[in-house]
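Standup notes
- HV: blocked on the assembly model, inputs below
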Amino acid sequence: MRAYRAVEDLARRGHRLDHARAMLKWDEAVMMPAGGSDARAETLAELAVLSHENASRPEIPDLIATAWAELEAAGDDPEVAWMRANLREFEHGWRSEVALPADLVARSTRASVTSEHAWRRLRVENDWEGFRPHLENVLELKQQEAAIRAGISGLEPHDALIELYDPGTRSATLDPVFADLKAFLPDFIAAVVERQRTENVIPLEGPFPIDAQRDLALEMMGHIGFDFSRGRLDVSHHPFCGGAPGDVRITTRYNESDFARSFMAVLHETGHARYEQGRDPESSGQPATRARGMGVHESQSLFTEMQVARSPEFLAFAAPIMRRHFRIEDDAPGWDADNLHRVYTRVRPGHIRVDADEATYPVHVILRYELEKALLSGDLAVDDLPGAWDEKMRAGLGLATGDNHHDGCMQDVHWAAGLFGYFPSYTLGALIAAQLMATLRREHPSLDDEVRQGRFENIGAWLERRIWSRGSQLTTPDLLEEATGQALDPQYFKAHLQRRYLGTEA
Amino acid sequence: MRAYRAVEDLARRGHRLDHARAMLKWDEAVMMPAGGSDARAETLAELAVLSHENASRPEIPDLIATAWAELEAAGDDPEVAWMRANLREFEHGWRSEVALPADLVARSTRASVTSEHAWRRLRVENDWEGFRPHLENVLELKQQEAAIRAGISGLEPHDALIELYDPGTRSATLDPVFADLKAFLPDFIAAVVERQRTENVIPLEGPFPIDAQRDLALEMMGHIGFDFSRGRLDVSHHPFCGGAPGDVRITTRYNESDFARSFMAVLHETGHARYEQGRDPESSGQPATRARGMGVHESQSLFTEMQVARSPEFLAFAAPIMRRHFRIEDDAPGWDADNLHRVYTRVRPGHIRVDADEATYPVHVILRYELEKALLSGDLAVDDLPGAWDEKMRAGLGLATGDNHHDGCMQDVHWAAGLFGYFPSYTLGALIAAQLMATLRREHPSLDDEVRQGRFENIGAWLERRIWSRGSQLTTPDLLEEATGQALDPQYFKAHLQRRYLGTEA
């Protein structure tokens, strides 16, 4: 086991560098004064170099080969099976790390940093013509990267990029699922909008003091099961979940005149955080204990936010707690569970993905998925992106984008920063979350009652067993199959939408 | 200049690793939940290994030799002089880094960590017999380290350890200065105590809300010149100044029933922070821009706290600001500048160094300096330490320690953690601060008026020119000579004490 143990050692060293980077990035977003940014960028770059040096040591290919031989000779007990998964993940990471020539990595990094920087300014100015050359530059390098990765892995180029964020997920799986949703959603959304037209939603009037919002968020995190001895909640411009296992940092932002959004954003990040906190601490630092990928990660945040927290049962539990924190009378109009549920299930097509509700969100994602595939293959020129965007927004949500690039194809940082292949994870996560919830509900018929009483232990224990503790031992499709007994099936998400928004069972 | 530039490059890489470690240590003390401590320790250890690997690369000796040849051929303009200082500092750091055999470093690190850990528990239990073997173990390894370092540098063993914290400072300088203070202080302290016996000090009655204390601290930091675009104030169990240039993190702790102590502690740390913020940002990461050492660093914190902030002029400026933050009437008893000055200049011999006032503090330091010298040389056995401590406390402050080890030789973390040679810096800092103030006052006769008006720009500009911007270009003695026109002279500190506490000019 000498070679295999050496692999574990390298993994552990790499993990520690990742840990340092994660904490420094958290600090950058949450704590760092503006004057620290140059030095921080240099320090993070230095750690990235050291991380790459560690992950691409020349002895690694031999170590991996010897370790495989060691494990093949070691029999078949569960511990060895775990080691095999660990070695497979290590090898996967190493292949990805050394796939690209150093000069392409350097050029891509430079291009992405420059482009993201430009995007921050140019988006505000709605300056598509200024941004276009940046995106063309990033895309061209991304096409090179995709071609190289595809050549090595035998995947399609787009799949080779998706693989970076969601190992095991393929266009061949996504295409029919997304086609199904595309067929379903327009009529569904129209029906929900029509139904909600006559609904009486009482707006929640602020101001909501920040301290009260924070106390409410902390209390709800505690109910859900967030472990404060191994994590924190802070404030940053964009909410995120960062840090390291054993020390998970989630963030939110507060708005005195609107608590509802931040409240749900905290629960979303709590879902991410619980996944991180629930990973196997014993073998921490080993690839097999890592979170499975972006799709599964998003499934955990959306499970908490969409499947649990926006349910009538949860809001019945939360309503009195909200009123207590904001010192609102029990019979104040709008603060009953029914109205809160109406507030939290409002469907309204809009231009902006990050503002989208649960029903319209997949339209935004599928649009991007299709467009990035066409951009990568060369079927769509960057020059034609705004037109294609406008067309798909009209078809999917009945909204024109026109020359409003700020709220159109320039709204997301992803492509500007070189993140092609990332978008599908969001909707994959929503589908997995619904499929997990359907399974859990089948196995635990008392689930709704438990949620209404604020008891989440069974949910947490089930997710820990089926998802969190499984780390990266299985591919995403195998993990889903093991957890739910079947492959990805969009019927659960559609049924969930129909039940919640139209009151019909599928 | 190829070799010299390569040296700068290595220095920059090392600096970035230091930066990462400093930030992770800040986070550990200020932000980290308890569950993160194991992973944090591992990550910090990994970074320490990488830092050592970088600082002891096998090519360094050749690079240094070639770089010296390059700089000797490069003439004598100021830029080259700066490079020489930089190379000298780099070489000094490298020699220190590679001086010890790896197994001694490993054993010392383990011993110190174990001993410090044990100390935290055993001090609380006043368990000297439990602690003694830990200290013996640490001391024995420290003696080995001192012998090796002395052999390489040609310094005395104690000096070779002092050199780690305060390059250029020698026992031969400290001995007569400390002897002078030892002769002066007992009678002086007795006279001050006698004089203060009849003083009417009105105690400041709380509670003082934490938010108000923080707002007051932040306002005063701003007046003094702390740059909030390049630093922050937070809370930790032990106040400290950490972070990195461009991003200086100071901490304090608050007590609702006593604001006076935290207020002064913040100003103390602000003095440290200003030094860090005032270092040359252009060449950041190069050894010549580093703070000169612990003694000079402490001189900057004590300059702000003792020379400026405890002066009657400063307290006249601060009194109305304090009253405003605590919503206290202008004529409330005790809140006038005179009473505040009495509060802040109270002299009372006590057992605990960190609680000591300005006049008795050097007694604590000189006692430790003498005892650690005797421990290192073997003249004093660890077993005899409590007795020697008791004897010196009686002689210096008229206080017996007896079997109260908690408040005797077990009160400080330093020796437990292997920090031998560190203590003299505290009093060296106090002496330098007084000497700097005497020089500044001579050059700026309007200084007291400026302080009374809350104008600190001239003080800041003077310190920046004389100390901060000089980094490590000069040794401590040369820096002091350049800044004040003469060598270290305790008369300034004594004159300061006599003026402040007895109202007499020396």
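- HV (later): unblocked. Chain B has 20 helices and three strands. The CA atoms of residues 14 and 53 of chain B lie 9 Å apart.
- Next: hand off to the docking folks.
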